[in-house]
Amino acid sequence: MTNRTIVVGLAGTFVGMTALLVIAGIVLHPIALALAVPFGAVSYFLWYHASGRLRDQARRSAEQAGPTERERARQRARAEANRERAYRAAGAADGGRGPGAGPGGSRRGARGPGGPRGSGARGPRDRAPSTDRMTEREAYETLGLDRTADGETVRRTYRERAKRLHPDGEDGDEEEFKRLNEAYETLTD
């Protein structure tokens, strides 16, 4: 039984209880009408959820709110990785001395792996885990799915493509297979 089926069943049950309470309120006692109001509200929200409108509204409000904290952290990490690559490229361009190196190749005051004065202290960015993972958006694009795809759809699509792209198969492509695995890991973490 799917979640949608369960929610539709609950909505139907609450609609029935609301109808019974309204009838009981008219026929027996007006207090039953007061009890029918919360049952009616619950019925409405369950129907709203089962119809998919609640999910659509949540998606729209999330898109309007902008990137999440996780996405902002990934953007900062990507920017830091780009700065690090640029720093390494500049070091390779001037003979491995790195930007700011003096004539003898030393960089006084520069922080190397040992930090200033060889203290062995490293900054938090040096200890940060690698950020070369793909984003959720890239993962959905790799799998060819919409961002609203549920876990079962992601799994099914991954398995179909993995069979086709596996390096031992006819149409095997090792690089695409690795990318597909990375996309699946990103979405299932």
TrEMBL record:
PROSITE patterns: DNAJ_2. Keywords: Membrane, Stress response, Transmembrane, Transmembrane helix. SUPFAM superfamilies: Chaperone J-domain. Residues 138-189 form the J domain. The chain crosses the membrane at residues 7-26, 32-50. Residues 58-87, 123-140 have a biased composition (Basic and acidic residues). Pfam families: DnaJ. The keyword Ribosomal protein does not apply. Residues 93-121 have a biased composition (Gly residues). Residues 58-155 are annotated as: Disordered. InterPro entries: DnaJ_C4, DnaJ_domain, J_dom_sf. This is Heat shock protein DnaJ domain protein.
